[in-house]
Amino acid sequence: RQLQRYGHQPIALIGGGTALIGDPSGKQTERALQPKETIEANAQGIKEQMKHFLRFEGENPALMLNNADWLCELNLIDFMRDVGKHFSLGAMLAKDSVKSRLDREQGISVTEFLYALLQSYDFMYLSEHHQCNMQMGGSDQWGNITAGIEYIRRTSGKTVHGVTFPLLTKADGEKFGKTESGAIWLDPNLTSPYEMYQFWLNTDDRDVIKFLKFFTFLPLERIAELEQEVQDRPEQRNAQKALAWEFTALVHGEKAVKAARAASELLFGTTPDDLNDDALTYVEKIIPSSRIGRDQIAAGIAMPDMLVQTQLSASKGEARRLLNQGGVYVNNQRRNPDEDITPADLLLNTAVLLRAGKKKYHLLIAE
Which residue, of 102, 221, 301, 365, has the greatest Cβ tally within 10 A? Predict the structure, then answer.
């Protein structure tokens, strides 16, 4: 994206062909081969996601290509004769991704061993047909990228380039993007905008400035201001809020990030001014909820009855004690024991957020 902003034409390469083989780089065991149908579905999903990051129209529009379009048409004999002869067995055996696997019981299959040839062929194909002169990837792709550079030099005499980036880790040494519940996905069906917003909001103070530089397009001057705020007022988490807003908006759009922020604020003790129906939908998926007739709310519901009905309290006696102690909240406002739930309590004329103590929530939805 940064390169495109400065006038270059990015090529987003979907590995519909190479995914049929599997890259051994960074892997201790052979990848499970995926059915063609799964790979095609994944490729289509990646295409949709890339549209959030790259511009595919206007000046220097990005290209979206799938290497299945040329790799799956290759003839094996022609490939081995025209491509294979340019690769030294010694150089391939010296690659870290190969050496680490040769020493293991499972070893490495010929299929994976020859993967570098396919990626090199991709680079050559893009160089010839789309004037591509630089390949970018993670540091685990260094061997594959340099193999392609050498292959192009040998076959055409061209000088092309490679850029790799370190794989991200957090301050605690854990690989970035992993949580106890699994990976963070760009697909909203796998990681909702709310979950993504929370992921960034929970960033460690030691990581947040680095992530702002990696994952947002905020000016460095603004990031420097946020860095100072981390030092002076870490409890306000303004840097984390900026990170969560910027990246979630980039991936899911402003409407989704507004709803995610509103849901987050609602569940952490404030009722935001920009609360909307999407935010309540997020909340409904996160905390226990139940539905109740509008006529019941119109008649008024005593708080002890409501707390028992929603299982926020085991009995009316316990509910009254909790109310008298000031431990019950309706829409994040402390509720007096003698106040009923009425239509005036409905957020957006839709729902009531109940809380007992600090952590027990229930969303009551009127219908």
Answer: 301
Tokens coding 10? 């990015």
Q: What is the pLDDT of residue 245?
A: 97
**164 DSSP assignment:** E
355: burial class by Cβ within 10 Å (0-12, 13-18, 19+)? buried
How many helices (H) and strands (E) the chain has is answered by 18, 11
- The burial of 323, by beta-carbon neighbours within 10 Å (0-12 exposed, 13-18 middle, 19 or more buried), is given as buried
Structure-token pair, residue 151: 């292959």
Cα–Cα distance, 160 to 133 (Å, whole number): 5
Q: Does the pLDDT at position 50 exceed 70?
A: yes
Cβ-based neighbour number of residue 351 at 10 Å: 23
User: Residue 280 and residue 276: Cα distance in Å, rounded?
Assistant: 7
Q: How far apart are CA 287 and CA 265, in angstroms?
A: 14
Q: Write out the E strands in the chain.
A: 11-14, 63-66, 134-138, 161-165, 178-179, 182-183, 289-292, 328-330, 333-334, 351-356, 360-366
pLDDT at 20: 73
- The 10s digit of each residue's pLDDT in 92-133 is 777 766 666 676 666 667 777 788 899 999 999 999 999 999
Cα distance between residue 97 and residue 82, in whole Å: 24
Residues 6+ apart with CB under 8 A from 25: 97, 115, 140, 141, 143, 144
Please name the residue ranges forming H helices in 233-302.
Answer: 238-252, 254-267, 277-286, 294-299
- What distance in Å separates the CA atoms of residue 115 and residue 21, rounded to the nearest whole number? 7
Residue 34: the pLDDT is 66
Phi, psi of 204 (to 5 degrees): -60, 140
d(CA 266, CA 152): 57
pLDDT tens for 329-367 read 999 999 988 899 999 999 999 999 999 988 899 999 998
77: enclosing H helix or E strand: helix 76-82
